[in-house]
Design a protein that fits this description.
The complex is a heterodimer of chains A (323) and B (343). Chain A is 32% helix and 24% strand. The two termini of chain A are 30 Å apart. In chain A, the strands form two sheets. An eight-stranded mixed sheet of chain A has the order 6-7-8-3-9-10-12-11, with helices on both faces. The radius of gyration of chain A is 21 Å and the shape is globular. Chain B is α/β, with parallel strands linked by helices and 343 residues long. Helices cover 30% and strands 22% of the residues of chain B. Chain B has an eight-stranded mixed sheet with strand order 6-7-8-3-9-10-12-11, with helices on both faces. A four-stranded antiparallel sheet of chain B has the order 2-1-4-5. In chain B, β9 and β10 form a beta hairpin. The longest helix of chain B is centred in the middle third of the chain and has 18 residues. Chain B starts with a strand and ends in a 25-residue tail after the last strand. Classes of the chains: A alpha/beta (323), B alpha/beta (343). Chains A and B meet through α6, α7, α8, α9 and α10 of A and α6, α7, α8, α9 and α11 of B.
Chain lengths: 323, 343
Amino acid sequence: MDSTPILDVRGLSVGFATIGGLLVAVEDVTLSVSRGEVLAIIGESGSGKTVTAMSIARLLASPPSRVLGGSVRMGKDEILVLDDRAMEDVRGRRIGTIFQNPRASLDPSFTIASQLIETLRRHDPALGRTAAAAEAVRMLGEVGFPDADQVMASYPHQLSGGMCQRIALAMALACKPEVLIADEPTTALDVGVQARVLLLLKRRSHETGLPIILITHDIGVVAAMAGRVLVMYGGHMQEEAPVADLLERPLHPYTRALIAAIPDPDLPPGERSFIEGEPPDLADPPPGCRFAPRCPKSEARCETEVPVWRQVAPHRSVRCHLV
Amino acid sequence: MENLIEIRNLSKTFRVRRGGVFNRSTVVTRAVEDVGIDIRKGEILGCVGGSGSGKSTFGRMVLRLIEPDAGTINYGGRDLLAYSAEELRQHRRRAQIVFQDPLQSLNPRRTVAENVARPLLNFGMDGRAAARRVDELFKLVGLDPRQSHRYPHEFSGGQCQRIAIARALAPEPEFLFLDEPVSALDVSIQAQILNLLKRLQVQLGLTYLFVSHDLKIVRQFCDRTMVMYRGKLLETGDSAPVYQAPLHPFTQDFLGTVLHARRNDAWERAAELAEDLEGAPPRMDGPHCPYAAACTRRIDRCTMAEPALQPAGAGRSVACFRHDPDLAAPSQATNSSPTGEIA
């Protein structure tokens, strides 16, 4: 695998203006993806995973959001300094996105055919209507619609959530992006349809080398999809590792708790282990480690001193005083 | 074990009007069809299925929040469907519900204490006694009673669900219908709420009907499981065997698509076969097994008759011809006898 990063994020920090002052939602996030790689970002509500993804594609309204520092590079381009016009060319064509609610990415008042054809022709103005329609049918075939004519003639509300998500995916892929950001793409779907959409993503990445940043709260999705995993909590990166290492030998107490909270089908039913308390309020974050107030192993310095992000083994990094 | 609720042949059809002024049509959706099961006193019965499987409609009918079209519900020896309006109102003390979205199910204009006290006041308790009971209930669900004068939006999702549970427990019910009670919560909070529900069930001797689309949780949390598919009950049994060795092909396929924290690629094969349960059901004429169109283990008779739920040993039941070779041939005359092999 070519390990030159296609997308390279360094030290990204993002804040939001609130009446209580600046809320730092994401602090010092560094990540990269290379050809054919699936990087999963896992975390709970308020972990900063979605803000990270939205900031990379510059989809957050600014103000109130503000990039406080860092860089997002693709090839020789710095994404964060591009003007709005240049950014329009980046979105879709260089950075594709799909989101949790697929209906929100489709226009309710147009048929699937007209939306797909418009997208294709916008990205390739030389393409005629008939050729675009043929291409749209081909793309729908790729995302699992063998008989696409009926789908082409439908409006989004006539289709199920799983169908809409596959169409949103077809639309994102139509622009041949260099990297795909998928933010909880299957959270709203049934397990069977979730598995189908994930398999499509995985195969696409495998076959064409498309790098994917997959944002999820579900360890099962991580295990099924990811090569590498970044664990976020309270706006900070907490641990990064290849997926097998992370699942088998998690280092950060938060990662361990997250994995332990998933019911294990091989264990007899009973009380599940769980983390006490609630995620931190980022308007008033804990002074030390963001996880310290809930951490079963917390020591005095965890309460006062933010641990540094450091590499502990090849391809493994963690932010914890105790590792 | 004694049965608390005995449900027989429960059915519900919804008529949905479609289209505009000129092409109006009525679409008939069979949300629940001919479902029968006993809910035993003191058990947690899990009900799983995909979108549109009828699991939520089923639960609501058991509470009579939705009126069934057909069937019977025997609750504690009495016919629930024969209750008068006042009898039904009194019955609400015994059977309560917890919804999926706690923030939406609490009244945002009332303090959480008023929310929790509402059922008590509705059943005639005086204000001062209700206030004392609210304090008890807060402690019972792990909340600080000093916060009870706050409003729902001041609490997190997990705390709101604790408040909703406190409200459900206020009139001292014996039965709770839990409709996806943790689906809207973060993973670490889910485990807290499930442990709370389990503790309350043991401590108060409650009976639960727990509806969820998350099979991992149902397997862990529920004593028995019922599997629904497009309004039909396909399989029941103790949770452990249903998950370890599912009998119905649908249950097998459904479980196959569950993603586990252990890495293994088996889900990819299941994913290729997975049916979009939100999509229209496959068209098939005449009586047939509801899963026949999607089933990879179909035999001839599956497309000629509909299998009934039959005992399959060890307290399990399944509606599948492959598990009942002795079942009488389909009633209508068919020249071809079933040729497929019987598993």
